[in-house]
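Hi L., both proteins are below.
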Amino acid sequence: MLLSLAFSALAFEDGARSSALYEPESGTFIYENNADDRRLIASTTKIMTALVIIENCGLDEVVTVPKACESVPGTSLYLRGGSKYTVMELLYGLLLESANDAAYALAVHCSGTIGSFAWLMNKRAEAIGMTNTHFENPHGLDGAEHYSTAHDMALLAAEALKNPTFSLIVSTKTAKVMGRTFSNHNKLLWSVDGLIGVKNGYTQAAGRTLVTACKRNGMTLIYVTLSDADDYNDHAAAYDWGFEGRKVFRTAAVGEPCAAIQVVSGDKSHVRVVPTSQTAFLLDEDEEITQEIYLPNFVYAPVAAGDYAGMIVYEKDGEEIYRADLVYETGAKVLWPTRQGIFDKIFGYFSR
């Protein structure tokens, strides 16, 4: 579910040619500026490179650096052909130092060729829903068929941040790896409250590109700017504006008990019920959502775990905005009453 909301009570404007401010839990784009325009994305490409590598390679796998890495232009770790490093070590070089040679080495290790790795990147983009994106390399150097949008890059960052390894690396300020000290090129990590990461980039044609995420008061926002000469200041201002006066409402989680039903003639007196789906909504601070649970007063045993029990309905301003089925968390068997037969009674009488 993707929503685009305009909060007219507040004003925000950045200097980017394209940008998007995104709240991933509710799927809400709070602010968009030419967000669907296709543009060069420079080293923010490495967000996808890292995600594909983490999902397809073991972090302890040893990578033998190809000789061709020595001639990859741009930011570099100066890797030498034949040298060996782990995937994890090269990921730190990729995401903190933005090393193009690390991107090349990881891509060839994973898929054999740059072309086959780009195919993996594009398949992953398709799965995420990045409909205006195409990758042709793992490092982000300019290419005629290498582009994305601010909207798509926000979706990519949200997906990548679900991965704990990715989140750990991009939120690291400095790390000692390969006998060196790597320093994150994203300087906002030192100055913006709650910043998580993610990745910046630059080429002369692309300009300054920056994807960041920030968490405050239990809410996360993702902001993307493409071709923005004042990106650091814009990102700091976007988060101050984006968090102000907003909150996230989360419906009951899947599998989280939210009520119980009395069971008649069962081996349990009550059985709890749980939702089968969940979502979230981005609200103004003074907005409220109410919920109603619809269940029978009681049920007769037997009850089977996972069977439909009722529903939970959420309303805003008197209008239904979401509902989820409720199912039984566990089952309940029939508890047959103990009955004494006529022969038992007769035997009991003469045995006294």
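That was the first. Here is the second:
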Amino acid sequence: MINREQNPDFLNSFLDYSLTILNKSPTSIKEYNYDISNFLKYVKASNSIKKCDNFKEVDISNFSISDLNLISLEDIHAYLAYLTTHNNSKPATRARKVASIRVFFNYLYKKEKIISNNPALDLETPKIGKRIPKYLSLEDSKKLLDTAKEDTKDRNSARDYCIITLFLNCGMRLSELVNINIKDIDFNDCKLNVIGKGNKERTIYLNNACLKAINGYLAIRPREGIAYNSRDALFLSERKERISNRTVQIIVKKELLKAGLDTKKYSVHKLRHTAATLMYQYGNVDIRALQELLGHESISTTEIYTHVDNKQIRAAVENNPLANI
């Protein structure tokens, strides 16, 4: 929850613009608020005669337009350097903050026209080395599913098995899974609609395993006493409310532990990586189709999955028509 009273008016205006015009998701709005407010707090603390040990406690509600106009590119670089040296901030984290700062100042300069120059105009994004994603092998994926399916003593076993099944078969994001409504599922066409990043809607197709798991859970899903704002939700918590991100993370960790898999190595997001990798390795799927399936805005994000299958690379070399000359 964002405490708007702690923000200066121009920051709240930026958040409103991002939500209504840029159509950013509530999660992105929270990230924008966190990134920008912390940056402004750092700037204010740095310029204060009375230095503050913890700049996150600084009050920025009275941060003025005049203060904004004094911010320079050097101030932004100093903030990023602080995050690197004091918070051990990773390049990917700094890249996100750079993106937030850049869109924020672009809004102030071009849309609101309340600053005379854009200090983030020449701000560069930290270089991020591409890493091969961690994922479960086919054998471990089957082991995880089998373990979740066999635990019939837990009254939530059908729900938890369904969650694991959807993650491993569909490659959906955590936020997409928790926000599934029953009415989003088309059982005749074997598909469901989800809202992904940037509030973009996309279709996810359901195979037999997914449909069986969903129907198995719906057969025992509570019908009475459901919270009013959660009646449409597919997945419910013990309190009969829409399941939360944190609860799903706990469920996945529990099932990984039961299957004897390393919870430090694998997580909810790694299940998404697993689904994508298995589809690429065994499904003979085109990279563009995989991009659409995963809801990636850029093909470069999807390309990380083309580097994980050494068998395909070896086969491509061996099948070169010049291989046996």
